[in-house]
Structure formats: C-alpha cells, structure tokens
From TrEMBL:
Keywords: Membrane, Transmembrane, Transmembrane helix. Pfam families: Sulfate_transp. This is SulP family inorganic anion transporter. Residues 482-501 are annotated as: Disordered. It comes from the Bacteria. The chain crosses the membrane at residues 20-39, 46-66, 86-108, 120-140, 170-187, 245-268, 288-306, 326-355, 376-401. It is found in: Membrane. Residues 15-382 form the SLC26A/SulP transporter domain. It comes from Streptomyces similanensis. InterPro entries: SLC26A/SulP_dom (IPR011547), SLC26A/SulP_fam (IPR001902). The keyword Transmembrane helix applies.
Length: 501
C-alpha cells in the first residue's frame, strides 16, 4: 500500500518513486492502448492518443491522485459498434458529446450519485463485455473476420475454428495468440524480480520476435503515423447528430465511462493510504479528458484499474507518475511509431482475450449466489442481455432489474389475523403496501370469512400506495356477505392482542 500524504519538501517530494512508477505504467499501458484501438476497429495510433490525453490532461487535474486513465477494454465493444454504425469520423463527435456531458454532471455535483448504481449491474456489464471481447478476439487470433453481433460471435466459434484449422495461415496465427495468453497467465507465477517487467509487454515482444525469426505468416499492426491518424471531427461528422440513434450511443458512452471510472476510483482508494477520491472532481477530470479526445477524433477513455493498480504497486505517491506515463507514451508515438508495425495482431488479440477473461467476476458471482441470489441473477441477466442485444440496452435491462429488485425488497408487508371465534375478525397490515405485493395481500384478505364482521387496521403501514388503497377499499365494499356488517377500515393506532397464556 502506498504511503501517506506527502510532506511539503519541495514541489516534487516523491519524484524518484513517481518516476519509477511512471515507467512501469507506461510499459503496461503501451500494449493495451494499441490492442484496444485495434479491437475497436480504429487506427492503433488513436489508442496511444487517448493514453497520452489520459496521462497528461486528466492526470494533471484533481480527483483521484493515483488512478490512471486511458482507452479501456470495457468500451471496446461499444466503440466498435459505434464506428460500424456511424463511421470513424463520427467517433470524435460521440466522444466529445460524452465528455461535455461528463463535465456538466461533474459541475452539477452528480459524481457521487454514480456510486448508487448497483455493483451487480456494473459487474454484469463488464462480464458481458468480457464475453463479447473474448469471442471477437478469438476470431482475430485466427486471422478471421468476426460477426457483428455478440451472439453470432459466440455461436459461430465452432465453425470458425474448423475453418481456421483447415487453412494454412490460421494455425500459426492461433499459436501466436495462444502463446501470448500462456505468457500472461504464467507471468504472475514467476519470481518477483522477473515480474518487474509487465507481462503484457513481454508477451508482445516475444510474439514479435518469434514471428520475425520464424517468418510466420501473421498479420501485424498497420501504421499510419500519429498525425495522419488524428482526424478532428469536421462539419460533416457533426451531421451524424441528425440521426436519433446516435444519442443512445452518446448516453451509453457517458454512463459506462463514468461508472467504470468512479468504480475504479473506489477500488484504487482501497489500495493506498493517500488522499481519497473527490468524485465530482474526478468526473470533471474524466469529462475534460474525453472532451480533448473527442476534439482529436480519438477513442473514449476511462480510468483503468489494471494501470491504476500497477501504478500503486509500483510505489507511486502523487499524480506525477500518471502525468509522466503520458509523456512517455507521447515520446514513443513521436519517435518510434514504426515499432508498432512489428506487433503481430494475434498477440494483441491474446492480450485482449486475457483482459476479457479478467472482466468476468467468477468468484464474485459464486459468493453472490450463496448469499444474495437476486444480485447474482441481475449480474448474469445484464451480461446475457449485452451478449444477446447490445451494450446500451443490456445495461438498461440490468438497471431496470436492479430497480425492480430494490422495489420488491422495500415492499415488505405483513398481514396478521386475530380470530377469537366470536366478535369481529381483526386483521392488521404492517410494513410497506405497494402494488408489487397486492396479489398476496388480496389473496389473504379474500380468504377471511365473509359471514363475520371484519376490521382491517392500517395504522401499522409505513407506506400505502394509491393502487393498494383503491384495491383495499374495493375489497372492503364487496367482501361481506348480505346481512353481515361491512368491513371496517381503521387508520387509528392499534396493538395486536397479546397471545394467550
């Protein structure tokens, strides 16, 4: 865990620690920036641009001092769908609009409210994204073109595998991808000194070296150059705003990027003892970064837990480390862009398959199922909805289920009946009577004898909604048989009679 707040020993009291941490984060971020861009269907350089902005622009702003921002695997599916639907020039407009919305929400101090989003919905969202990423990148690892929809990606995998094995180029490509995943899985088990170099970087370097030495027929990253890749949105790109469908995508960008960033901030706060995250300021910082990314036509960004945890574990003490990591990305993009052309695409696919797998919370799902099955159902339903439908509607389904579950849990109601055999039957309702529990309430009331007087006491209710009130009044009017005293509704406080004996 990181040390406490720096003491005032100059402007950069922990420059040595932050410098060392920035190099580690740079080495972690480099392959992820490129891999996320390629998987999103945009030039690899745009991933570096977003990483640079996340480091230098967002990194300089207040909010969360140690978390690191950049292109995230969690937005890969959404960006790919957006580029396919609206075109690459419109990507900058989407990201710009999302950034401006984040700035507005931060100014309105709405950042803290994102913590009210059900954790099960967020984890289900990430799990669904992870499944789609894994399925899509398995095609990329084989050098094949993936289907458009999530369900088609998954159902088409067996046939794609048979086609790949029958070809001449795909086996080599699959071997590079599988080797990359193997390095990433085995790397954490190596001695700590060997793990000083990030596993993703080692996997990419090994894949590039093996492909080069053996002259394997695998595709590599296409390089356009940083200035050529950066295309600020022009007037024609803003014409996409005339399509009503684009606003759902903007809302999805904003919701998912904000929620992922602020949940990441909460996770990073648990890793160190330094200053806590100021959520509204962090949302402003994310909005500023996405606004700049939009103006540059780059990928959207979020805070990324992989880079952030690497930053903390590498000994970072202040925001200097994340700013420097952005500087190193800028230096690399400016001086060594041709090095990207040596990276095999199946190696990037392997990195993203591994990243997608880590997005699926297997342990969390098992513990939820044992203790909170309703939350586990929400998690699974959100993930499955994203695979079957799309990202935005899947998240909305998850949120709707979460709200419905909360309403159901909050509407506990209890009906106690006291019948002494003579005199009126006493019925006592307590709790929260809402339309969700109305069928159960009415079933119990309709079972009361119709040839006896009934008194229904409502004073124990904390809440009685309109639907329940009307239903109870209607039941009271119709329940009693002819010649029997009508049902009496009482709102005066009344105690349940003590049990006999």
């Amino acid at each position: 865990m990181s040390a406490a707040v720096p003491t005032p020993r100059g402007r950069f009291p922990f420059l040595r620690q932050d410098f060392a941490a920035s190099l580690v984060v740079f080495l972690v971020a480099l392959p992820l920036c490129v891999g996320v861009a390629v998987a999103s269907g945009v030039p690899a350089e745009l991933g570096l641009v977003t990483g640079i902005v996340g480091g230098i622009v967002t990194g300089l702003l207040p909010g969360s001092s140690l978390q690191v921002s950049g292109p995230a695997a969690g937005l890969t599916v959404l960006v790919f769908e957006a580029v396919r639907a609206f075109g690459l020039p419109a990507l900058g407009v989407l990201v710009l609009a999302a950034g401006l919305l984040q700035l507005t929400m931060g100014a309105l101090r709405l950042g803290r409210w994102f913590r009210a989003i059900s954790v099960s919905v967020v984890e289900g969202m990430l799990a669904g994204i992870g499944l789609v990423i894994i399925a899509g990148q398995l095609y990329a690892a084989a050098g094949l073109r993936a289907p458009a929809s999530g369900i088609d990606k998954i159902t088409g995998l067996p046939g794609a595998l048979l086609d790949a094995l029958a070809g001449t180029r795909a086996p080599a490509s699959l071997a590079i991808g599988a080797g990359t995943v193997a390095v990433l899985v085995l790397w954490p088990r190596l001695p700590r000194r060997a793990r000083a170099v990030p596993g993703a970087l080692v996997a990419v370097l090994l894949a590039a070296l093996v492909s080069r030495l053996l002259d394997l027929p695998v595709a590599t990253v296409q390089v356009r150059g940083l200035l050529d890749a950066v295309q600020p949105p022009g007037a024609a790109a803003f014409g996409a705003l005339a399509d009503p469908a684009i606003y759902g995508t903007i809302a999805a960008f904003t919701l998912i990027a904000s929620a992922e960033s602020l949940f990441s901030a909460a996770a990073v706060d648990r890793l160190h003892d330094g200053p806590r995250t100021r959520y509204d300021k962090e949302l402003l910082a994310q909005g500023a970064g996405n606004t700049v990314c939009g103006l540059l036509g780059a990928l959207p960004m979020t805070a990324v837990i992989v880079r952030s945890s690497a930053n903390v574990q590498a000994g970072a003490r202040t925001k200097t480390s994340r700013v420097l990591h952005g500087v190193w990305l800028l230096v690399f993009a400016a001086l060594l862009p041709s090095a990207l052309a040596l990276i095999p695409l199946p190696a990037l696919a392997g990195i993203l398959v591994h990243a997608g797998w880590k997005l699926i919370p297997f342990r969390r799902l098992a513990s939820l199922w044992r203790g909170h099955r309703g939350e586990a159902v929400i998690l699974v339903a959100t993930a499955v909805s994203i695979v079957l439908v799309n990202m935005f509607e899947g998240v909305l389904i998850g949120l709707a289920l979460s709200v419905a579950k909360t309403a159901w849990d909050a509407s506990h109601v209890r009906l106690e009946v006291v019948d002494k055999g003579a005199g009126p039957v006493q019925a006592y309702l307590s709790g929260n009577a809402t339309f969700l529990r109305l069928p159960r309430i009415l079933d119990s009331l309709e079972a009361l004898p119709q040839d006896r007087p009934v008194e229904l006491h409502l004073a124990g209710l904390h809440h009685l909604d309109h639907a329940c009130r009307l239903a109870l009044e209607t039941w009271a009017e119709r329940h009693s048989a002819a010649g029997t005293e009508p049902v009496k509704l009482s709102t005066k406080p009344a105690r349940l009679p003590a049990p006999p004996g």
